[in-house]
Amino acid sequence: MFSLGSGGGKSAKPSFVSYVTPEEIEPEPEGSLQEKSPEFLPGEVVFCSAKRILRCTQDDESECSVFGTLFLTNFRVSFVSDAVHSEDTVQLFKNKLYGENDIPLACVDQIYGDYDEKKKLITSSQVKNKYPSKIIIHCKDLRVFHFSLLCVKEEVRKKIFQGIIHHILDPKSLKCIFAFSYGEKAAPVPEVQRKQKTLMFETAEDWAAEMRRTKGSCKLVEDNKDFQIAQRLPQFFFTPTSVENEDLQKYQGRGVPIWCWSHHSGCALFKTAALPIAQEESTSKVQKAYVESMLNAVAQNHLYSVKTVDLSDALPNIQDIQQSYNKFKQNFLIDSIAEFWMSDVKWFSTLETSRWLSIIRQCLHKAVEVVESLERENTNILLIEEGGSDLCCVISSLVQLMLDPYYRTLVGFQSLVQKEWVAGGHNFLERSNLLHQRDKELQSPVFLLFLECVWQLLQQHSPAFQFSETYLTVLSDSINVAVFSTFLFSTPHQRATIMKAELDTGTLNIPPVWQWSLQFDCKAQGFFINPLYKAKSKQEKALRKAQRPKYTRQLSLPSTPSRRGFFKEETDNLKKMLRVKRISRWMQLPDSVQACVREFYSVWQRKPLDYHGLLLPCLDWPAVRLWTQRYLRWIPEVQILGGGDVAMLNKVAALVREVQELRTEVDRQVSQADPSLESPLVFARSSVRLSSSFPFAAARVWSFRPAIPISIGDSQMDLGQLASRDDEDTDYQ
Amino acid sequence: MASASIPVYNSNPLENSSSRNASNESLKMELLADVPLLPGEERVIDKDIIYICPFNGPVKGRVFITNYRLFFRSVDVDPAVTLNVPLGVISRVEKMGGASSRGENSYGLDITCKDMRNLRFALKQEGHSRRDIFDILFRYAFPLSHGLQLFAFLSQEKYQENGWTVYNPVQEFRRQGLPNDQWRITFLNNNYELCDTYPTILVVPYSASDEDLRKVATFRSRGRIPVLSWIHPENQAVITRCSQPLVGMSGKRNRDDERYLDIIRATNKMTSKLTIFDARPNVNAVANKATGGGYEGEDAYQNAELVFLDIHNIHVMRESLKKLKDIVYPNVEESHWLSSLESTHWLEHIKLVLSGAIQVADKISTGSSVVVHCSDGWDRTAQLTSLAMLMLDSYYRTFRGFQVLLEKEWISFGHKFASRIGHGDKNHADADRSPIFLQFIDCVWQMTKQFPTAFEFNERLLVAVLDHLYSCRFGTFLYNCESARDANEVKMKTVSLWSFINSDRASYINPFYTVEFVHVLYPVASMRHLELWVSYYIRWNPRIRQQQHSPMEQRYKELLALKEQYLRKLEELQLSDSTSHLSNSTAPSPSTPSQRVTHLQTPF
C-alpha cells in the first residue's frame, strides 16, 4: 500500500528526503487560524502560514493591494484577505476545490522573486539566505500573483518562502501528490446518474460497446489484462483480425496496430508505436517483414488499401511543442500594466514567433489529411509515432471529432479522452512534470495542444458541439489540480496497479476529472453546455440513415468467427485479387497534400453544412485564432465590460431556458404528465453587467473607467516621409 | 431594353464564327434578360470575354456594361460565375498586354477596385477587340472626368421611405436638450459665409456673440470654429469640434479665440481645465506651424490642457490599407500572416483612433468638456467625435441614430467624401484619396464585435454603407460639404442611401440588440481584441466561409420561432380549456409577442 511516510496521513510528513525541518510543517498557532482560513479539503494539511502578507494587484499597489494571510498546504498556496468580504455576492461559477485566491501547488508554473527591484526566476537550488521582498507566482492557468513580504517578520518570511519554494519546486514522489492524501480522506461522491455514461475503457465491455457502435470488425485482445505485453498499452484493445497472438509479444506491442475507430464505410483508423530502430541488418530485415505483416493485417482485414502516417516526421516533436508553448504563454503572464501595453504593439509578431498557433494549425491540417483518406478514399490509416501516445492521441482524437458527431457531445468527448488518452497511455504524469523532475525533457503540453485544436473546431462550428468553450477551459485547468486520477499517471499499468492496490485496501478514492460535481455544483455545470447545440431530432436521424449511401460493406471481411463463412466464397476471391495488387504500402503522403487538403476542404465547404456530419476546420490564417477565454480571462486591461460573445451567448441561453419551460408547460397541459427534466442551462440575469471573461474572474470588481493604452514614446511604425506630409496637398491659405 | 439615347455599340464584335447558331443566340437573349437593371440604368455594351478569376482560373462568359455597373456571367459553368460591380467601385482601368503579347489570356483589361479586389479580363487578340470596351469602361467608370453625370443623378429609383428626412439638425439638437441656458443655435452660417465647409445650423455658447464667432473664424483654419457636437445630458460636459488654430511660425495669438475657448470651458461648472485633444502626433502639429497652422500653446490657453492623440495623416492610412490589400487579395498571406498583418499597421491605426475616442469619452463622462481637432477638422476629428458619441450615447447605436450620426458628424460637417473617395474621377493616384471613412466604419465594427448586444444594426448595414460609399447610386456620400450638395441640388435630384436601407430595415437589424441606456461603452483598444474584419476585407475569397447569418443568429431566430410556436400552442390549449370564456379570447392573437409573454406567464 502506498502511504504518506508515517502512515495515517494525519501529519503529512513526506517520505522523501525532506529539506524542510519538521517545525515548518507545524501549523501556526490555532487562534489566528480559526478566524480566517480557507476551507480545507479532506486530507489537506497546513505546512505553514504567514500573516501581514500584502497581495498587490499589478501596478496599483496603493489602491488595490490587500493585507492577508498566506497559507501553504500540501494542496495549495492560499491567500486569505483580511478585508471583510462584502462582495460575497452570488458567484455563479465557483470551483469547490479552490478559489480565485488559491493556487494549487501543481498549478504553479514559475516563481519569481523581487530582489531590489529586479525580477529573478527562482529555481530551488538558488535559495540560500536571501529572501526576496516580493514573490511573483505565475500559474499554469495564467493567473499572476504578487505577494509582498515586506511587512512580514524576517523569521516568518524565511519560513514561508522556503516552504513554498520547497514544496513547489523540489522533486517529489508520486505518493506525495495531493490526490493521494485527498483520496484517503474524501468520501466517495455519488455522481448523479445520467442516462449516458462516460465510457472509461477500463473493461473489455467498454471496448466492445465502442466497436459495436462504430460497426467495426476487429479482434479483441485480452492478453494484456495483466500487462504481459506492455505496460504502456491498455488492458484491452482491438487489433486487426489477422494479427496473431505471438505478433503481439514480439516487440512488447510496438508495431501492433491498435484500433481507434471505424468509419461507416468499413475502413478504420489505427495507431501504433514505432519499432525501435534496428542496428543490424538482419534484425532490420526481420523488422521489415514484421511491419509488412502488420500492414497486411490492417489491409486484409478490411480489404482496403492502407496508408501509414508517420507523425514523428510530419509534426513538431514534444520538445518543440513545449518550447513553443513556453514562449506563447509569456504573452499572457503579465506583471504590470506598463508591460502589457508595451507588448501590445508587437502583439501579432510575438504571437507568430512563438509558433504555437502554427503548431495548432499543423495538427489540424494533419488530421484533415487523415480524415480525407478515411472519408474520400476509404483507406485504412495507421498512425505511427515513436511512443504512440502523444501526437497519435492528438491526431486520432481530432480525426474522430471531425468524423463522428457522437464525440462532439459532452459524454462522447469524455469517452474519447478516456479511449485515446487515458486508456491510450498518454504519459500525463511526465508531460505535466507533476513531480518536478529536474530533467524537463519529458514535459510537454500535448493534451493542452489537443484541447486548443478542439477549441478551434468549436469556435468555427459552434453549433456542432454540445459542450462549451468554458468546459474546455475548465478541463485545461483541471490538468493542474493534482486531484484527479485522469491526469495522474504515466502508463495504464501504473494507473491500474496503484488504483487497484489502493482500492483493494478500500481506503483510496481518487476520482476522475469527469466527476464534475467535485469542482462545480449543478448550476455551475450548466456552463459546460453550449446553448447553440441542437441535438439531432429523431426525424433527422431517420432521414440521414435513409440518405446515407450504401457502402459496399460486403467488401469488408466479416471478422467475427460466427459470421465467417457467410461471404466466404466471395471474399476468398477478393483476397486473391488483392494479393496480386498488394495495396498495402508504406505510402508516404506526397508533398502535394497541401493542395489536396485544400481541395477536399473546398468541396466539403460547398455542400450545405451539416452539424451532425463531417466537420472540417478552415485552416486559412484569419480563421485560426487565439483562445481568448483561456488566455485573456485574468488580464484586467482586456476585459470588455458588458461585452464579449458572452453577452450574446447569455441571451441565447436565456431563450433556450424559456423555450424549455414553455415546452414543459405545454407537455404538462397536453398529457398531464410529469415534465421531463432537461439539462439545466444557466445564464446570468440580464441586470448583471458581465465582463467578457465571464464566467471566469466573476468575483472581481472591474473598473468602470476604460483602460487607456499607454503610448510608447516613439512610435515603432516606420512610416517614412508620408507621416510628415500634410493632410492637404493643396496650397495652404 | 437599351434606350435610344445611348449610342448603340456593336454588341457582337467577336461574333464572326459561323458555328454560332440560333440556339446560342437565344441563350444570349436569356442571359441578357437576367442582367439586373435599376430604374434609370441603361445598357451600353456587352461582349464575350474571359474573366480571369484569381481563385478558380479563367472563366468564359459575357460582360455587360451599363451606365451603373459591370455585370459578368459565365457560360458553360455550373454553378454560374457572376460578377456585379457598380462602376463607382472602380478606381483604375488599365490595358493588360499588347496585341503581340504571348501566352494564354495575356491580352485584356486590368481593373483595380476601391473595395479590396481587382478584376482581370482577357479577350481574343484580334482586331483591337478591347478598344471599345476599354473606352466605354473608362468613360462610364469616371463620368466626372468625361463631362457625364454620376449615376445617382440618372437613377429613377423610388422608395417609400424618404431618407433625406432622417437627419434634421434642429430636431437632433433638441433631442440633446439644446438650446439651453448655455448653448444657442445660430443660423449665422445660413449662406455658408462664416465657413463654407460647415453646415448651416451650428450650436455655440450662449455668451459668444455672432461677432465673436466671426473673429474666431479668422483664427481657425478654413473658418472651422469650435462648435458643439454633443452635450452630456447630466453633467453638461460637451464635445466641441474645430480645426487647428492659425498659430504659424511666429506663434501668433488671438484673444478672441482664447476667450472663446474659455467661454466653452465655463459653460460647464465642473470643468476647471478644458481638454483640447489634438488628434495628430505632436511632431506633425509642430510641423503644421510651417504652413500657418499649429496648436494651442500653453501660455495662450491657460485654462486648457492639450493632449496629442498620435493619429497619423491621410497618406499614412492610404498606404496602410494598400499594404493590407496586398496581403489579403487575391490570396491570404500564408507563411507569415500575423507579422505581415502587423506590418500593415492597419489595426494599430484602428487602435490609436479607438483609444483616442475612449479618452474623449472618458473625459466627458467624468464631467469635463473637450475640444477635438486635427488639422482641418474633417478627417480624424470626425472619427474621434463620432466614435466618442457612439460610446457615450446609446441613441447613436440604434438603427436610426447611427444614420443620424453619419449625417451629422461626417456628411454635414464636411468630411470630404468626394476627394477622399474620388467619386467618378479618373485620377486614381490623387493624394487626396484616403480610406478615413472606411477606417471609422472598421472602428464601429470593432465596437459591434466587442459589444454584440449593444447595437441595433448589424454588420450587413456597415458593409452596405461601405458598398454605397463607392457605388454612386445614392446621393448621400457625394460631394465634399453641404454647400456643394446644396449647389448641386443633391436632395432634389438623387435618392438617399437611407431610403434604400430603411425600406429593408429587417435585413439590417441585430437580433441580439438589448436596449441599455445607462452605460458608457468602452471598447478595449488593445491588439489582443482588435481583429481584422475578415468578412469585409477578405469577402471576395471563396475559401473564407461567408455566413449569411452567423450560427448564433440563426439559432437565436430558431429559438424565437419555437417560443412563438409554444406560446401559440399554450394559448390554444387555454382557449380549449376555458370554453366558457370564449367571448373575450376568440380574437386570433393580435397582441405582440411580448404582450403575450406577460399574459401567459401568469400560470407558471
UniProtKB/TrEMBL annotation, chain A:
GO BP terms in the entry: phosphatidylinositol dephosphorylation
Residues in Myotubularin phosphatase domain copies: 201-631
Keywords: Cytoplasm, Sarcoplasmic reticulum
Domain of life: Eukaryota
A single cellular component GO annotation: sarcoplasmic reticulum
Record's subcellular location: Cytoplasm, Myofibril, Sarcomere; Sarcoplasmic reticulum
Keyword field contains Metal-binding: no
InterPro entries: MTMR12-like_C, Myotubularin, Myotubularin-like_Pase_dom, PH-like_dom_sf, Prot-tyrosine_phosphatase-like
N-terminal signal peptide: none
UniProt family annotation: Belongs to the protein-tyrosine phosphatase family. Non-receptor class myotubularin subfamily.
The name this protein goes by in its record: Myotubularin-related protein 12
Organism: Scleropages formosus
Primary gene name: MTMR12
Automatic annotation (TrEMBL), chain B:
Molecular-function GO terms, alphabetical: phosphatidylinositol-3,5-bisphosphate 3-phosphatase activity; phosphatidylinositol-3-phosphate phosphatase activity; phosphoprotein phosphatase activity
CDD domains, per database record: PH-GRAM_MTM1
Annotated ranges, domain Myotubularin phosphatase: 163-537
GO cellular component, one term: plasma membrane
Any Pfam family matching the protein: Myotub-related
EC number: 3.1.3.95
Annotated localization: Cell membrane; Cell projection, Filopodium; Cell projection, Ruffle; Cytoplasm, Myofibril, Sarcomere
Major localization class: membrane
Keyword Cytoplasm: yes
Positions of the catalytic residues: C374 (phosphocysteine intermediate)
Domain named Tyrosine specific protein phosphatases: residues: 344-390
Listed name of the protein: Myotubularin
Organism: Scleropages formosus
Lineage of the organism: Eukaryota, Metazoa, Chordata, Craniata, Vertebrata
